[in-house]
Amino acid sequence: MIRGRGERDYGSVLLGSASDGPTKRRVRIQTILTGSIVLSNFVGAVVTISLSSVGIPEPSTFAPEMWWINYIAVPIYVALAFVIGIGWGTYTITRDLRWAIRRQPPTAADARRTRRVAGRLLRLQAALWLGAVVMFTIMYGIQSPMLIPKMFFVIGLSGAVVVGVTYLLIELALRPVSADLISAGYRRRKRSGVLSRAVVAWIVGSATPIVGILLLVSFGAFRQDTSKLDLFVGVFVLAVISLGTGLLLTWLTTTSVTGPLRSVRNGMNKVQAGNVDVDLVVYDGTELGDLQVGFNSMVSGLRERERMRDLFGRHVGREVAEAALSSDPALGGTERTVAALFVDVIGSTTLAAERSPTEVVEILNRFFAVIVRAVEQQRGLVNKFEGDAVLAIFGAPIDLDDAAGAALCTAREIARELERRVPELSAGIGVGFGPAVAGNVGAIERFEYTIIGDPVNESARLSELAKRDPRRPLASGRTVDVANAREAAHWEEQETTSLRGRTEETRVYAAVVDD
């Protein structure tokens, strides 16, 4: 199940959501990749024109004898490069990313081909610009040998900018595909991935323009016809290009870092708010991807812990579970004054004989649900399910101001609700009160929280008597005596009897049945 995801699953709104369909995903990936190539080459073209015409105006490339280069060779090469770059690139992307576009599980061969997509596109761009360097340096050099260093530097610098921008943009565009590979188990961590991005940004955005400025100043110093204005204009243009490309590359590099960090931060905010049902999309193959994987592992552990905590609370009671988790549990107990409520089904053997096991379990589950709900409403603890009987405790482990009143009220509620919600069976309900030992009983390897004492025995014996009239739960006299007056008014003395296993006589009270 995908959890905690949205429009920034891949660190950018442009890349959409992990829940996008095949068509939408294909359009996004292809559009962003094609746009990346077009944008980077557009930046390269701007750099080339700016440097050749304004930054380094002399020697000029606009002499009349060079018309065939400027107006025939250059447009034809640019058009061919555009067609080859976009056409071949689109074909390669469609072929190698077919599994990702169709949202199919990748094979090992798919993973290998996919990892080579970015490299092939980059090599293609580099080859096209290298061809331009060689071709136009030779062409312009034939017309004027003084243009050889100028064209080599101008086109070479532009090609470096294009390759650097393309590298960062392709990495951004392929994030959804990288996420699918990583989730499928084909994760190959890049060595120093973040450092590589930073180095590329520095080389293209800062180092190369600075080298260009140094070369421009050096050439100007050895040329007699170079004026101060020419040097100033050339340095100014290179500085502007450096500022522009540096800003673009810095933004792309920063985005590649902040995207994964932002996803982790958002995930941490959700966990801090109490939502551990969060999974991040791991799309980065660098150290930042390790951070995303680590977050998912941490949240998975928290989910497992919460699941165990919930199961633990369901088995032993949430109050007991909280007490055990907040301290180091040990064997032994303390004396507490508690009220015990015992509920025992009448005719369980007949019920099992007349109905199928599935029906019996369904009826008993409804029976237990009524009891658990009523006990928890009065802050009691359902301590044991003993076959078709239930023992509940009031006053331990949570102290109650009126444990007896809470137990008596619960007994009446259970009797009413069983008659209404579980008409297939009836039960005897007894309530006892008095001192008992409450604590962990068993061995150090396996123990349980329970109470041992007279109230438990008393409530069990009273539940046997109560089977005579299941509508009227029974309670001991001392339970009614210590309960609040409002609750005690719902009980009336019925008899005085000797309960089984007890020497003293017990005053027995029965709940008043409302007409």
TrEMBL record:
Any matching Pfam family: Guanylate_cyc
Domain HAMP: 255-307
Cross-referenced PROSITE patterns: GUANYLATE_CYCLASE_2 (PS50125), HAMP (PS50885)
Residues in Guanylate cyclase domain copies: 339-463
Entries under SUPFAM superfamilies matching the protein: HAMP domain-like, Nucleotide cyclase
Keyword Isomerase: no
Superkingdom classification of source: Bacteria
CDD domains: CHD (cd07302), HAMP (cd06225)
UniProt keyword Cell membrane present: yes
Transmembrane segments annotated in the record for this chain: 32-56, 68-93, 121-140, 152-174, 194-219, 231-252
Keywords: Cell membrane, Membrane, Transmembrane, Transmembrane helix
Family classification: Belongs to the adenylyl cyclase class-3 family.
Protein name, entry field: Adenylate cyclase
Organism: Gordonia jacobaea
